[in-house]
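Quick board copy: two proteins, each given as sequence then tokens.
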Amino acid sequence: MTPPTRVLIVDDSSTIRNLIRRRLDGDPRIIVVGEASDPFDAREKIKSLSPDVLTLDVEMPRMNGLEFLERLMRLRPMPVVMISTETHRGSAAAIEALALGAIECIGKPAADRLPEGFLHLADLLVVAARARVREPGPRTIASPPGDFRWNGRFVLIGSSTGGVDALETVLKGFPQDCPPTLITQHMPEGFLASFAQRLAPRIAPKLSLAADGAPLLPGQVYLAPGGESHLVMTAGDPPRCQLVSGPKRSGHRPSVDMLFESASPLAARCVAVILTGMGRDGADGMAVLRAGGARTFAQDEATSVVFGMPRVALEIGAAERAVPLSRIAGEILGLAGKDAAVRERTLR
């Protein structure tokens, strides 16, 4: 029998600590081993209590959560789930936390919605405790080819837990004139806007939050804006982005399944990829695309923070094969370029 996941709650607000504890105490998969009100208290309790995973507030006195996270990942890497307000400042900090190695970041409930807060936190912590913590240091990243020529295939990417780092790795391997690319990343609306602002200046193509009716053009990367809408792709000349209001699908809004299934009329002109993430969103939609002639693959287990979504896609035959993260950009460009032998270069 799997032992309970040991959780340390780190937050300067006693109200939030109590709310998190109440959410977790009734779950037999979890034991709350302690609470800390600031990073200095947390440091001592990590040493004495040996938790499997932390919940960590971004904004705290004496030392903010980002500074503590950076030190923790350098000295004692371990799974961390960040808790942040969904203000612009809080969302930007959340994205920075994910880039520093946090497994996931969730929004802190507003004062008038405290009873609804942290409903799915227990599930997330159980998965996070067993996630692959990214080691700090240099990584292998694909170098964009200088002679890419688009062959008319569109690229669709779905990602979740661990996706901030994975998407940056993939997109840094894209040339300025990359194939039109649509991305659904599981994340709250405010976090997605901050993610787009952080990522856009770091890559060669133009990246933006998808706008309703935007044409799918080479050199453009479109990120689902989330909120009340899903991002889907419409057939046309050219095909376009469409934002569709609706309930959650596969437990998410935006949903990868919604994006993938919407592209089925153009399946033979698509390359679909599932990156790291918990759950199974995207697997069924990818199966539809593959049956229609799309080329499909998933991130491999060794490089996934959470091998949930990719595992399901591979198990049901939706993904043709598993590919290491460092090779995914090259695989995409090889399938979406006129030269099928696009060469992947890496920086080591």
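And the next:
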Amino acid sequence: MTATDPWIRRFFPSPDAPVQLVCLPHAGGSASFFRPVAQALNPRVEVLAVQYPGRQDRHHEPMIDSIGGLADHVCRAVTGAVDRPFALFGHSMGATLAFEVAVRLEQAGRVAERVFVSGRRAPSCHRDEQVHQRDDAGIIAELRRLSGTDQRVFGDDELMRMVLPAVRNDYRAAETYVCATDHRLRSPVTALTGDDDPKASHDEVRAWSDHTQGAFEMERYPGGHFFLVDHAPDVIRLIRERLTESAVAPR
């Protein structure tokens, strides 16, 4: 893999940063969601944002509708891109994917400094959700409920036609996922959650502690599923503090 790998975006390259942070988007999301994070953490942390196929500049590529399939590809991309201590951050579907990527990397001998999981219940907590089987109106209703999509998008029919296939695909991946491993990460896990997130209860988020041998912490913020947008400065501060701790005190 090279710096031109289509899976990885380096919005603010920081070759001298002591740690890299691999960021995994939510369902329907893209790497550009993490551009402000990359800018805020630069130059102490180099952000590598993952771009899934089937959206933005990869719109011509076939999408992958399983977490396992995505994890295999992302693991290969991360293995080629990461060249120093690293951490993983995933929001919603991206949190589940971050876990599966971390498992694969550990099995290959590479352990993340920390895994940040945001807005997602633990892999062992299954819900029978079928949003991906709804018609377009049903999926749009779900997006409105979660308040994570720019309201201007809903008024642009052409843009919605471009966005909905990726959203449906990613919901299928997230909703059909079943944790098939009892592997407990060696990395510490930081779970972030919104007080009113309809997609993850506090108990479901706390269950992430069962998936690591390392330290576990849960940080709660006011808000719903996309609490991290409203509390971006606090979330970024937390990431910076935890990664700075890792840089000065290796595990």
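Board note added afterward: The first helix runs from residue 35 to 41.
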